[in-house]
Amino acid sequence: METRVDAYAASEADSRVVAALRSGDEKAFMQLVTEYGPSMLRVAQLYAKTRAVAEEVVQDAWLGVLGGIERFEGRSSLKTWIFRILTNTAKTRAEREGRSLPFSSLAPDDLETGEPSVDPDRFLGEGERWQSHWVSSPRRFDDLPEGRLLSREAIGIVQSVVEKLPEAQRVVLTMRDIVGFASEEVCDALGISEVNQRVLLHRARTRVRQALEEYVEGTDG
Amino acid sequence: MKTYKFLCGGGIAPFTGARWPEPQSGKPGQWVEAAAVEPCRQGVHACALEDLPYWLQDELWEIELDGDVQRVGHKLVARRGRLIRHVDAWDGGTAREFSDDCVARTAEIAARTRGLEGHAADAVANATAGRAAVTGFIASRVAELDGGVDAYEAERSRQAAWLAERLRLGA
Amino acid sequence: MRLADDITCAELVELVTDYLDGGLAPELAERFEEHLVICDGCSTHIEQMEETIRVTGSLCEDDLDPEVADRLLAAFRGWNQAGAQ
Predict the structure, then answer these.
(1) What is the DSSP letter of C65?
(2) pLDDT attached to residue A3
(3) The complex's ipTM?
(4) pLDDT of residue A147
(5) Quick check: C45 and A41 CB within 8 A?
(6) Domain boundaries A143-221, CATH class
(7) Which domain holds residue B129?
């Protein structure tokens, strides 16, 4: 498993990009924008009422990045720094518009014990020699013909499941697995504890996994 | 104390999927740092002789560990490690011998204690399917069901000693 | 694993996210791994989870809207000019 976001200090590559920006290198800036822009829009949309507002937030965030680039010290990675500016910009805008932030207060049922992650029927029952163990092994997703899982259809299913997730789960899943924030960064941005964050992430991933499993089993002969 | 590491076929770490650099021309493999290979973990994982039965996989390697080595349950954790040599004696054949031995132990206990026939059958099925670790586990579970925790530990020790001898491993 | 230390598959599937995040206490993580060695079902379940995470991760391969790109380039030029003065 790779950590997709470098939560550590700025790398050499980061330093080169920062130097390029400071010297007015357009290409470097556009490369940065291309790389992070789409993710930034996804995050902004978690806070903003409309896509148009989200786009404005991202634009403002980039201006904030340029405005602050001389002061960037490299104590965090460039990406972390940029996304922090983004979430701050998004929060400020949301507050100004009187919008409640992504679950500024967690709804009571967000954290209560939910359903089991896997249908209990998949496990052996009481009195069995291997009680609570799998009745039969689940099937690997990659038992499919080459490339099946990354088919448009599979991605569409995931997209659809994500859109229908309860808000708190959707936000955490988006930030962790779609955009690639590290755990601490998500907790920091959302003001929730590590434990809470993980419960929400687990529930969200569970739903997506179930949907993919159904798809895999359904489309197989 | 010699330390060991089991890898899946192709030198792949079982839990992280990372590929371990192998020894070349008699020289140890490259050092692997914990953070680089196993970012979610606290360190490089290995085991001592007595832990072997818990971690059986396709390949057995002798590994050198560096830095503080801590024990957590049946595994060792260190900041970094490098593969020293492949234990050629551990292969499908010896794994099957190990399994057959565990099957025999299980059958022995099941023969004199009621209610364990199912476990005995499970042991046979897993041995046939080439699942040495599972067979070893079943033998240990049956020992415990029959004779309590002490019997469990005794069976695990026996398994470790069997491996040490059969594979000619030093302590 | 001794009976007293046993983790069942039903328990393990509730802990997968914690495990993948390095959030399990070391002793529990070790027992979790001992279980994986002897359980194809749970190993496969975790693989499914990892594959799920991978597919979710591929959702963000959107391209940058060219209009947005133009606006940002203009903003950059404006910032650059202002700095040069």
Answers:
(1) P
(2) 36
(3) 0.93
(4) 60
(5) no
(6) mainly alpha
(7) 92-166
